[in-house]
Design a protein that fits this description.
elongated, alpha+beta, single chain, 6-stranded mixed beta sheet, 8 helices, Nuclear Transport Factor 2, Chain: A
Length: 276
Amino acid sequence: MKNDLLSIHHDFDAAWNRHDLTSIMNHFSDDAVVTTIPPPAGMPDRFSGKSEIQTFVQGLLPGFSVQTRHVHADGDRVTWFATIASDGFRQIGVPALDSECEAVFSQGKIRSFTPSFTPATIAVLQAATAQHEGAALAREIYTLFNAGKMTQALPFAAEDVALTLVPFGQQFQGHEGFLAFMEGFKTAFPDCTVNLTRQISAPGRVVNEFVARGTHLGPMMTPSGTIPPTGRSIDYAACEVWTLEDGKLATLHNYFDAATVMNQLGLTPAHETAAF
């Protein structure tokens, strides 16, 4: 019995490393249950029956590999320690994860499969997930801005979000201020787009480098007055430093070379200190 289970376990691991979905699924009984402790972000902790388990497997399979050690069989149970990797984990900056696994067998099939992440792995995974989500949040807001859907971006910001246009010392507060900040650019440059070139993220913060492009077709409101449309195009590099709280934009500091923008617009020196 022991040797039979160890052989089945070996075949199970080999199927994962071959990315052989059919063979993996053949190892599970029809009423099998997979429980992940704790579940990866955005995933349930329990998959019941072959249909749900197949969804779980398919999500992990691209680029998947497993290295197994300390395999032990006792009665109808097999336990082992595994280091796993997959494209999904790599996308959030985690090359590999350690897991303690247990499988309970019935008539040669896996009836219960429980991978449990180690405390160190959980900490790494949580930090990487938070880091990845911050960068993804920024990309989503920029996408909505580019499409002119600024109001749809507001739920991604905290109610008391604070924004600073650093070159001019302008500050904007709350959802109303966030909307005014975005609409100021879109009013002056209706076709304005933000094109990300690099992101550097960490839990609770993300730095976004981008190129902003647009055509000055609308009035540009500044502290020193309204500048009428020049019809000229802008194309300049900028950087924004964001902090996040509870998964939402909390603060934003926008940096760019104001002189470059004013020169591109052909504005007079008197206007070179004007703000958007």
